Every structure is written in C-alpha cells, then in structure tokens.
Here is the input.
Amino acid sequence: MARVWLIRAYNRAGSTTQDIPALKAWERRYAFLTYIFALLLAALHIRALSAHEPLVHIATISLIFTFGAGIVSRNASRPKLCVMSLSLVVLPTAIAMLIHATREYGQLLHAEFFALQALLLVTVALMSLQSVRHLYASSVEHLTTKHDLATLARFDPLTGLPNRLLLRETFQTNVQSSEIGDQMAVHYLDLDGFKAINDRYGHPAGDAVLREVARRLQSMIRTEDVACRLGGDEFLLLQGHVRHQDQADLLARRIIKQLSEPYLVDEIEMRITVSVGIAMAPEFGLELERLMAFADTALYRSKAKGKAQVHFCTAEDLRQSGQAVA
Here is the structure.
C-alpha cells in the first residue's frame, strides 16, 4: 500500500516534468520501499517454513517468484534496484530453506526437496539478473540511438551548429517570450572566397574552415541567440531581445571582423571574409521564411557593394525584389 501511495503522490507532483533532484528523491523513496517489501516477503516465507505447511510454502514461494518477475520487467533500467531487491528476497529465503532441509521431519526426500528448491530459487534469480543486464543494455542502446537521431535531426553533422529545424523552434520560442519593445535580428551570412579554398586545397580543408567558422560564431553570441548553418557556405544568426538596430549592426561588424581573421589548416594560412544581410522583426514580419528572404535581399546588396559588408533590409530593397512591406 505504501508503494501504491508513493506512486500516486509522484504522479500528483508532476511525474517526469519535475527537475532532476526531485526525480532522484522520488527514486530513492521508491527503492527504499521496494527493499522493505523484499525483506517482508523473505520474512513471510521464513515464517511459513516454520509452520511446515506445503500449501502455505507454495503460496509464499510463488509470491517471491512473482515479485522477482515484476522487478525485472518494470525496473530493468535500474540495475542496482533489481540486484538489491532480488538479493534481499532470495538470499534469506534460500538460506532458510537450506537450514530447513537439515532438520528431520521424517518425510521422504525432505532434505533433497528443500535443497533443490533453494538451488532453483538462486538459479532463477541469477537468470533474472542476466535478463536485467540484457534489458538494460537494450534500453541504453535504444535511448542512445534515439538521442543520436534527435541530434542529427536538429544539428548540422559537420559543424555541430543547429539546422533549420532547431532554428524554427528557437525562433518560435523567441517570438513567444519577446517583451514589448523587443526586436529580433535575422543575420544572413555568406562566406566570401570560400569556393576558392575548396577549389585550391580540397574539401577537407574547406570542411576545417567551416568548423572553425562555426566555433567563432558560437563564441560571439549569447546563450539565447542561435547560429545555424543553412548549407554550403551560408549561415544564419538569430539575435533576440534587440532594443535598437545598432545592436544588430554592432554584432554583424564583430562577425565580419572575427571571421575575416586568418584560418590555419595543415599549417597553411587561409583567408576568407563574410557578407551579412539583416532583416528586423517585427518590422518585416514574424514569419521566419519571410524574414530569411528579406535578409537574403540585404545580403545581395552587401555582396554587390564589394563584400565584407553589412546591410539592413529596407523598403527600397523590398521593392527591388518585387515584395511589399506588409
């Protein structure tokens, strides 16, 4: 009953939505009650042995097997809990049956029967632990694969930066958490001179440069901002909680300065620059794809003006691209 009450209290407290320390505290309480229950089962069987009633003995030993099966099936992801619970119920019971086997009751094969039962109980417990090991390994493999797939779905495998999926999720979060007066800057980045590095030094060198670009971008942004690789040599930076356009301009110029520093790959110094186009939200809407298109328009101006520059999307840019400001 105490374990049932504990589970109900856990569900009322929020179940898996609680923080890690709270979940660990619930786990410790559950483990403690499970250990107590295991000891009580062992004590019940020992008491049944003293009565020397076959039906009572069968009932109590059946309870032990049922308890063990439940522990293995429900808690295989907690090997320590399984090992301790099975040990607490099986070892005292097996020892009690071996002691009981040494006593004379004047019945045929009495000693052999209880000794064999003790041996079978221990054997089944060991087999159960083997099942725990297998189920635990399978669970870890499944969760690892699930985590890897989730990572691949949200992150670029080359640079480790978020991809478009995680970018959209972060964008929606920023929109929902924005305060009155907040703006959001969408920086569209295109590396200048990167194709020449690929052509001259090969794709491995180009990949090394892209990874370093990603590292530098990550070092320049706040935890609430996100840098994303769109593909090839194009990146996008989402800058939230911007109070004035100058903040976005300052960050863009820092990016140009940092990414224009030389890159050392296999002891060869390589240089690129970066052009930046920026669209501000909510001035140009609150749809990510629309903002990206506007930022791309501003990026086109930056590259047309000589590269390594930053330009903001304006009403004139929108008219030239055939789009209208809402």
